[in-house]
Amino acid sequence: MKKQISVEKEEFNSILPEYGRRKLLTYADSIRELAESFRETENNREEIKRTVETDRKDYIWQKRLNENKDLMIEHLEEMAKIMTQLADETRRCVPLGERRFKQIAHALKEVDIQIKSLYLIENEAQRMEISLTIRTVKKNTLSAEDLGDLLSVLLNMRLTGAQDNAFFIGNEWQTFYYVEEARFHVLTGIAKAVKETEKISGDNYAFFETEQGNLTAVLSDGMGSGEKACSDSTMVVELMEKFLEAGFQMDMAIQMINSALLTGEDNSNMSTLDLCSVDLYCGECRFVKVGSASSYIKRQHLVDRISSGNLPLGIFQRPDMEAVGRTLMDGDYIVMVSDGVLDALSQGIGEDMLSELIGSTNLENPGEMANAILNFCIHQCKGHIRDDMTILVIGIWKKED
Asked: What band does 346 get if pLDDT is binned at 50, 70 and 90?
Protein backbone atom coordinates (compact mmCIF):
# COMPACT_ATOMS: atom_id res chain seq x y z
CA MET A 1 0.00 0.00 0.00
CA LYS A 2 2.83 2.42 0.75
CA LYS A 3 3.98 2.35 -2.85
CA GLN A 4 0.60 3.69 -3.84
CA ILE A 5 0.75 6.51 -1.36
CA SER A 6 4.03 8.23 -2.18
CA VAL A 7 7.71 7.67 -2.67
CA GLU A 8 9.23 7.44 0.82
CA LYS A 9 12.29 9.57 0.08
CA GLU A 10 13.20 13.09 1.08
CA GLU A 11 15.51 13.80 -1.82
CA PHE A 12 14.19 15.22 -5.06
CA ASN A 13 13.00 12.54 -7.45
CA SER A 14 12.35 12.77 -11.17
CA ILE A 15 8.74 12.11 -12.10
CA LEU A 16 9.84 10.82 -15.48
CA PRO A 17 10.99 7.21 -15.62
CA GLU A 18 14.72 6.91 -16.24
CA TYR A 19 14.12 5.45 -19.70
CA GLY A 20 11.99 8.46 -20.64
CA ARG A 21 14.61 10.87 -19.32
CA ARG A 22 17.34 9.28 -21.37
CA LYS A 23 15.21 9.33 -24.52
CA LEU A 24 14.50 13.05 -24.08
CA LEU A 25 18.18 13.81 -23.47
CA THR A 26 19.10 11.79 -26.56
CA TYR A 27 16.61 13.76 -28.66
CA ALA A 28 18.00 17.01 -27.23
CA ASP A 29 21.56 16.01 -28.14
CA SER A 30 20.44 15.11 -31.67
CA ILE A 31 18.79 18.50 -32.13
CA ARG A 32 21.93 20.25 -30.85
CA GLU A 33 24.01 18.30 -33.36
CA LEU A 34 21.61 19.36 -36.09
CA ALA A 35 22.03 22.98 -34.98
CA GLU A 36 25.81 22.61 -35.17
CA SER A 37 25.52 21.31 -38.73
CA PHE A 38 24.09 24.70 -39.74
CA ARG A 39 27.11 26.58 -38.48
CA GLU A 40 29.57 27.93 -40.99
CA THR A 41 33.29 27.69 -40.28
CA GLU A 42 35.21 30.93 -40.08
CA ASN A 43 36.97 30.08 -43.34
CA ASN A 44 33.65 29.74 -45.13
CA ARG A 45 32.51 33.07 -43.74
CA GLU A 46 35.67 34.76 -44.98
CA GLU A 47 35.20 33.16 -48.39
CA ILE A 48 31.69 34.59 -48.57
CA LYS A 49 33.00 38.08 -47.73
CA ARG A 50 35.47 37.90 -50.61
CA THR A 51 32.63 37.34 -53.07
CA VAL A 52 31.67 41.01 -52.61
CA GLU A 53 34.38 41.93 -55.06
CA THR A 54 33.17 39.45 -57.68
CA ASP A 55 29.41 39.15 -57.48
CA ARG A 56 27.37 41.53 -55.34
CA LYS A 57 24.07 39.73 -56.02
CA ASP A 58 25.40 36.33 -54.94
CA TYR A 59 26.84 37.91 -51.82
CA ILE A 60 23.50 39.41 -50.80
CA TRP A 61 21.72 36.09 -51.26
CA GLN A 62 24.45 34.24 -49.37
CA LYS A 63 24.28 36.79 -46.56
CA ARG A 64 20.53 36.29 -46.25
CA LEU A 65 21.03 32.53 -46.25
CA ASN A 66 23.52 32.83 -43.40
CA GLU A 67 21.10 35.00 -41.42
CA ASN A 68 18.38 32.37 -41.86
CA LYS A 69 20.84 29.68 -40.78
CA ASP A 70 21.64 31.63 -37.62
CA LEU A 71 17.94 31.87 -36.83
CA MET A 72 17.49 28.16 -37.44
CA ILE A 73 20.38 27.42 -35.07
CA GLU A 74 18.74 29.50 -32.32
CA HIS A 75 15.39 27.79 -32.81
CA LEU A 76 16.87 24.30 -32.70
CA GLU A 77 18.94 25.13 -29.62
CA GLU A 78 15.80 26.42 -27.88
CA MET A 79 14.00 23.15 -28.66
CA ALA A 80 16.94 21.19 -27.25
CA LYS A 81 16.91 23.39 -24.15
CA ILE A 82 13.20 22.71 -23.54
CA MET A 83 13.74 18.95 -23.85
CA THR A 84 16.66 19.08 -21.44
CA GLN A 85 14.66 21.11 -18.92
CA LEU A 86 11.81 18.62 -19.12
CA ALA A 87 14.18 15.68 -18.62
CA ASP A 88 15.82 17.38 -15.62
CA GLU A 89 12.55 18.58 -14.10
CA THR A 90 12.37 17.45 -10.50
CA ARG A 91 9.64 17.02 -7.95
CA ARG A 92 9.73 16.06 -4.29
CA CYS A 93 7.25 13.38 -3.32
CA VAL A 94 5.92 14.30 0.11
CA PRO A 95 5.21 11.27 2.36
CA LEU A 96 1.54 11.04 3.22
CA GLY A 97 1.51 8.07 5.56
CA GLU A 98 -0.65 4.97 5.40
CA ARG A 99 -2.99 6.13 8.15
CA ARG A 100 -3.73 9.42 6.37
CA PHE A 101 -4.21 7.58 3.10
CA LYS A 102 -6.80 5.28 4.70
CA GLN A 103 -8.64 8.29 6.12
CA ILE A 104 -8.85 9.86 2.67
CA ALA A 105 -9.84 6.55 1.07
CA HIS A 106 -12.62 6.16 3.64
CA ALA A 107 -13.91 9.69 3.00
CA LEU A 108 -13.95 9.08 -0.76
CA LYS A 109 -15.71 5.76 -0.25
CA GLU A 110 -18.52 7.68 1.45
CA VAL A 111 -19.21 9.39 -1.90
CA ASP A 112 -18.87 6.11 -3.87
CA ILE A 113 -15.31 6.71 -5.10
CA GLN A 114 -12.64 4.02 -5.04
CA ILE A 115 -9.02 5.19 -4.90
CA LYS A 116 -6.11 3.32 -6.42
CA SER A 117 -3.20 5.69 -5.75
CA LEU A 118 -2.53 9.13 -4.30
CA TYR A 119 0.65 11.22 -4.58
CA LEU A 120 1.49 14.55 -2.95
CA ILE A 121 4.18 16.28 -4.99
CA GLU A 122 6.09 19.48 -4.30
CA ASN A 123 7.23 21.12 -7.54
CA GLU A 124 10.27 23.33 -8.11
CA ALA A 125 8.25 26.43 -7.21
CA GLN A 126 7.51 24.76 -3.84
CA ARG A 127 3.82 24.47 -4.68
CA MET A 128 1.89 21.31 -3.92
CA GLU A 129 0.44 19.12 -6.65
CA ILE A 130 -1.92 16.20 -6.08
CA SER A 131 -2.18 13.18 -8.37
CA LEU A 132 -4.77 10.50 -7.69
CA THR A 133 -6.16 7.59 -9.70
CA ILE A 134 -9.80 6.88 -8.94
CA ARG A 135 -13.10 5.59 -10.28
CA THR A 136 -16.72 5.67 -9.17
CA VAL A 137 -18.28 2.40 -8.04
CA LYS A 138 -21.90 3.43 -8.63
CA LYS A 139 -23.87 5.25 -11.29
CA ASN A 140 -23.87 8.40 -9.21
CA THR A 141 -21.36 10.80 -10.76
CA LEU A 142 -19.20 13.37 -8.99
CA SER A 143 -17.60 16.25 -10.88
CA ALA A 144 -13.86 16.86 -10.80
CA GLU A 145 -14.57 20.29 -9.30
CA ASP A 146 -16.56 18.78 -6.42
CA LEU A 147 -13.75 16.28 -5.85
CA GLY A 148 -11.29 19.17 -5.63
CA ASP A 149 -13.42 20.84 -2.96
CA LEU A 150 -13.54 17.59 -0.98
CA LEU A 151 -9.77 17.09 -1.24
CA SER A 152 -9.21 20.69 -0.13
CA VAL A 153 -11.00 19.87 3.13
CA LEU A 154 -9.33 16.49 3.61
CA LEU A 155 -5.80 17.78 2.94
CA ASN A 156 -6.30 21.23 4.49
CA MET A 157 -5.12 23.13 1.42
CA ARG A 158 -6.98 25.05 -1.28
CA LEU A 159 -6.83 23.06 -4.50
CA THR A 160 -7.93 23.65 -8.08
CA GLY A 161 -8.15 21.09 -10.87
CA ALA A 162 -5.77 20.89 -13.82
CA GLN A 163 -7.14 22.15 -17.12
CA ASP A 164 -7.03 18.72 -18.77
CA ASN A 165 -8.95 16.89 -16.03
CA ALA A 166 -12.06 15.00 -17.15
CA PHE A 167 -15.26 16.80 -16.16
CA PHE A 168 -16.81 13.84 -14.33
CA ILE A 169 -15.37 10.83 -12.52
CA GLY A 170 -16.28 7.72 -14.49
CA ASN A 171 -16.45 3.96 -13.95
CA GLU A 172 -12.98 3.40 -15.45
CA TRP A 173 -9.74 4.19 -13.63
CA GLN A 174 -8.70 7.78 -14.36
CA THR A 175 -5.95 10.01 -13.02
CA PHE A 176 -6.89 13.49 -11.85
CA TYR A 177 -4.46 16.30 -11.05
CA TYR A 178 -4.88 19.20 -8.66
CA VAL A 179 -2.61 22.10 -7.76
CA GLU A 180 -2.52 24.66 -4.98
CA GLU A 181 -4.92 27.46 -5.73
CA ALA A 182 -3.37 30.81 -6.71
CA ARG A 183 -3.54 33.76 -4.30
CA PHE A 184 -5.05 36.08 -6.90
CA HIS A 185 -7.92 35.86 -9.34
CA VAL A 186 -8.69 38.09 -12.31
CA LEU A 187 -11.58 39.41 -14.36
CA THR A 188 -11.11 40.70 -17.90
CA GLY A 189 -12.96 43.18 -20.09
CA ILE A 190 -12.74 43.94 -23.80
CA ALA A 191 -14.04 46.77 -25.99
CA LYS A 192 -13.46 47.11 -29.75
CA ALA A 193 -14.27 49.39 -32.66
CA VAL A 194 -13.48 48.81 -36.34
CA LYS A 195 -12.09 51.48 -38.65
CA GLU A 196 -15.00 53.24 -40.35
CA THR A 197 -13.94 52.20 -43.88
CA GLU A 198 -13.41 48.51 -43.01
CA LYS A 199 -15.59 45.55 -42.11
CA ILE A 200 -12.99 43.65 -40.10
CA SER A 201 -10.55 44.81 -37.42
CA GLY A 202 -6.80 44.52 -37.90
CA ASP A 203 -6.39 44.13 -34.12
CA ASN A 204 -6.43 40.74 -32.42
CA TYR A 205 -6.03 39.62 -28.82
CA ALA A 206 -6.10 36.58 -26.53
CA PHE A 207 -6.17 35.74 -22.83
CA PHE A 208 -4.82 32.38 -21.73
CA GLU A 209 -3.72 30.81 -18.46
CA THR A 210 -0.87 28.30 -18.22
CA GLU A 211 -0.65 25.41 -15.77
CA GLN A 212 2.14 27.31 -13.98
CA GLY A 213 -0.45 29.86 -12.80
CA ASN A 214 0.37 32.68 -15.22
CA LEU A 215 -2.34 34.69 -16.94
CA THR A 216 -1.08 36.10 -20.23
CA ALA A 217 -2.77 38.79 -22.31
CA VAL A 218 -1.59 39.31 -25.90
CA LEU A 219 -2.64 42.23 -28.11
CA SER A 220 -1.41 42.66 -31.68
CA ASP A 221 -2.13 45.42 -34.19
CA GLY A 222 -1.48 44.44 -37.80
CA MET A 223 -0.03 47.22 -39.93
CA GLY A 224 -2.67 48.91 -42.07
CA SER A 225 -6.25 47.76 -41.76
CA GLY A 226 -8.71 45.20 -43.02
CA GLU A 227 -8.15 41.54 -43.85
CA LYS A 228 -4.37 41.75 -44.41
CA ALA A 229 -3.78 43.44 -41.04
CA CYS A 230 -6.16 40.97 -39.38
CA SER A 231 -4.31 38.01 -40.90
CA ASP A 232 -0.93 39.24 -39.64
CA SER A 233 -2.11 40.04 -36.11
CA THR A 234 -4.02 36.75 -35.90
CA MET A 235 -0.85 34.85 -36.73
CA VAL A 236 1.11 36.74 -34.05
CA VAL A 237 -1.48 36.06 -31.33
CA GLU A 238 -2.05 32.40 -32.21
CA LEU A 239 1.66 31.57 -32.50
CA MET A 240 2.48 33.34 -29.25
CA GLU A 241 -0.17 31.33 -27.42
CA LYS A 242 1.05 28.04 -28.91
CA PHE A 243 4.74 28.73 -28.24
CA LEU A 244 4.25 29.80 -24.62
CA GLU A 245 1.96 26.86 -23.85
CA ALA A 246 4.55 24.55 -25.42
CA GLY A 247 7.20 25.84 -23.00
CA PHE A 248 9.23 28.24 -25.16
CA GLN A 249 10.85 31.18 -23.43
CA MET A 250 9.10 34.45 -24.21
CA ASP A 251 12.08 36.04 -25.97
CA MET A 252 12.59 33.04 -28.24
CA ALA A 253 8.87 32.84 -29.03
CA ILE A 254 8.94 36.48 -30.15
CA GLN A 255 12.04 35.85 -32.27
CA MET A 256 10.38 32.90 -34.00
CA ILE A 257 7.22 34.91 -34.72
CA ASN A 258 9.34 37.73 -36.10
CA SER A 259 11.04 35.24 -38.44
CA ALA A 260 7.64 34.01 -39.63
CA LEU A 261 6.61 37.58 -40.48
CA LEU A 262 9.89 38.26 -42.29
CA THR A 263 9.44 35.22 -44.51
CA GLY A 264 5.88 36.18 -45.53
CA GLU A 265 4.91 36.09 -49.18
CA ASP A 266 4.99 39.84 -49.86
CA ASN A 267 7.75 40.75 -47.37
CA SER A 268 5.52 43.45 -45.83
CA ASN A 269 4.09 41.53 -42.89
CA MET A 270 4.35 43.79 -39.85
CA SER A 271 2.51 43.69 -36.53
CA THR A 272 2.92 45.15 -33.09
CA LEU A 273 3.07 42.91 -30.03
CA ASP A 274 1.87 43.92 -26.58
CA LEU A 275 2.19 41.16 -24.00
CA CYS A 276 1.41 41.14 -20.30
CA SER A 277 2.03 38.08 -18.10
CA VAL A 278 0.78 37.98 -14.49
CA ASP A 279 1.90 35.41 -11.93
CA LEU A 280 -1.33 34.73 -10.03
CA TYR A 281 0.57 33.22 -7.09
CA CYS A 282 2.72 36.22 -6.21
CA GLY A 283 1.33 39.12 -8.25
CA GLU A 284 4.50 39.72 -10.26
CA CYS A 285 3.73 41.15 -13.69
CA ARG A 286 5.88 41.39 -16.82
CA PHE A 287 5.21 43.56 -19.86
CA VAL A 288 6.94 42.92 -23.19
CA LYS A 289 6.41 45.46 -25.95
CA VAL A 290 7.42 45.45 -29.61
CA GLY A 291 6.13 48.56 -31.39
CA SER A 292 2.99 48.70 -29.27
CA ALA A 293 1.11 51.56 -27.62
CA SER A 294 1.48 52.41 -23.95
CA SER A 295 -0.09 50.24 -21.26
CA TYR A 296 -1.33 51.43 -17.88
CA ILE A 297 -1.54 50.10 -14.32
CA LYS A 298 -4.29 51.71 -12.24
CA ARG A 299 -3.98 51.63 -8.45
CA GLN A 300 -6.94 53.53 -7.02
CA HIS A 301 -6.48 56.97 -8.65
CA LEU A 302 -2.76 56.59 -9.38
CA VAL A 303 -1.71 55.48 -12.88
CA ASP A 304 1.63 54.01 -13.94
CA ARG A 305 2.23 54.36 -17.69
CA ILE A 306 4.44 51.77 -19.40
CA SER A 307 5.72 52.89 -22.80
CA SER A 308 8.13 51.71 -25.48
CA GLY A 309 9.86 53.36 -28.39
CA ASN A 310 10.71 50.40 -30.59
CA LEU A 311 9.42 49.26 -33.99
CA PRO A 312 6.95 46.45 -34.81
CA LEU A 313 7.73 42.83 -35.63
CA GLY A 314 8.59 41.95 -39.22
CA ILE A 315 11.02 44.81 -39.90
CA PHE A 316 14.41 43.75 -38.54
CA GLN A 317 16.05 40.34 -38.41
CA ARG A 318 16.19 40.65 -34.63
CA PRO A 319 13.28 42.49 -33.03
CA ASP A 320 13.93 45.14 -30.41
CA MET A 321 12.04 43.97 -27.31
CA GLU A 322 11.43 46.12 -24.26
CA ALA A 323 10.51 44.31 -21.03
CA VAL A 324 9.27 45.94 -17.82
CA GLY A 325 8.38 44.29 -14.50
CA ARG A 326 5.90 45.42 -11.86
CA THR A 327 4.37 44.01 -8.67
CA LEU A 328 0.58 44.13 -8.59
CA MET A 329 -1.61 44.56 -5.52
CA ASP A 330 -5.17 43.71 -4.59
CA GLY A 331 -7.58 45.86 -6.62
CA ASP A 332 -5.12 46.91 -9.35
CA TYR A 333 -6.15 47.16 -13.00
CA ILE A 334 -4.09 46.71 -16.17
CA VAL A 335 -5.21 48.58 -19.30
CA MET A 336 -3.78 47.63 -22.71
CA VAL A 337 -4.75 49.50 -25.89
CA SER A 338 -3.98 49.47 -29.61
CA ASP A 339 -2.59 52.69 -31.10
CA GLY A 340 -5.97 53.59 -32.64
CA VAL A 341 -7.14 54.49 -29.12
CA LEU A 342 -4.37 57.04 -28.64
CA ASP A 343 -4.80 58.38 -32.20
CA ALA A 344 -8.47 59.08 -31.45
CA LEU A 345 -7.55 61.45 -28.64
CA SER A 346 -6.94 64.98 -29.87
CA GLN A 347 -3.88 67.21 -30.25
CA GLY A 348 -1.26 64.48 -29.86
CA ILE A 349 -1.73 64.23 -26.10
CA GLY A 350 -3.43 60.85 -26.16
CA GLU A 351 -1.18 59.18 -23.60
CA ASP A 352 -1.59 61.91 -20.98
CA MET A 353 -5.33 62.23 -21.60
CA LEU A 354 -5.82 58.47 -21.31
CA SER A 355 -3.83 58.40 -18.06
CA GLU A 356 -6.13 61.04 -16.59
CA LEU A 357 -9.24 59.20 -17.77
CA ILE A 358 -8.10 55.88 -16.28
CA GLY A 359 -7.10 57.50 -13.00
CA SER A 360 -10.39 59.35 -12.60
CA THR A 361 -12.78 56.47 -13.27
CA ASN A 362 -14.52 54.83 -10.32
CA LEU A 363 -15.76 51.85 -12.33
CA GLU A 364 -14.77 48.50 -10.83
CA ASN A 365 -15.99 46.09 -13.53
CA PRO A 366 -13.25 45.59 -16.19
CA GLY A 367 -15.82 45.29 -18.99
CA GLU A 368 -17.52 48.53 -17.99
CA MET A 369 -14.15 50.27 -17.72
CA ALA A 370 -13.12 49.12 -21.22
CA ASN A 371 -16.42 50.33 -22.71
CA ALA A 372 -16.18 53.67 -20.92
CA ILE A 373 -12.71 54.28 -22.37
CA LEU A 374 -13.88 53.30 -25.86
CA ASN A 375 -16.95 55.56 -25.68
CA PHE A 376 -14.79 58.47 -24.52
CA CYS A 377 -12.42 57.96 -27.48
CA ILE A 378 -15.29 57.78 -29.99
CA HIS A 379 -16.74 60.97 -28.51
CA GLN A 380 -13.36 62.72 -28.74
CA CYS A 381 -13.00 61.89 -32.45
CA LYS A 382 -16.64 62.88 -33.08
CA GLY A 383 -17.56 59.41 -34.24
CA HIS A 384 -14.95 59.29 -37.03
CA ILE A 385 -13.04 56.08 -36.29
CA ARG A 386 -9.81 56.53 -38.27
CA ASP A 387 -8.14 53.35 -37.03
CA ASP A 388 -9.10 50.11 -35.31
CA MET A 389 -9.43 50.49 -31.56
CA THR A 390 -9.08 47.66 -29.02
CA ILE A 391 -9.03 48.00 -25.23
CA LEU A 392 -8.20 45.18 -22.81
CA VAL A 393 -8.72 45.60 -19.06
CA ILE A 394 -7.57 43.12 -16.42
CA GLY A 395 -8.65 43.49 -12.81
CA ILE A 396 -6.75 41.53 -10.16
CA TRP A 397 -7.98 40.73 -6.66
CA LYS A 398 -6.64 38.70 -3.77
CA LYS A 399 -8.74 35.67 -2.91
CA GLU A 400 -10.36 35.62 0.49
CA ASP A 401 -8.77 33.31 3.05
From this structure: low
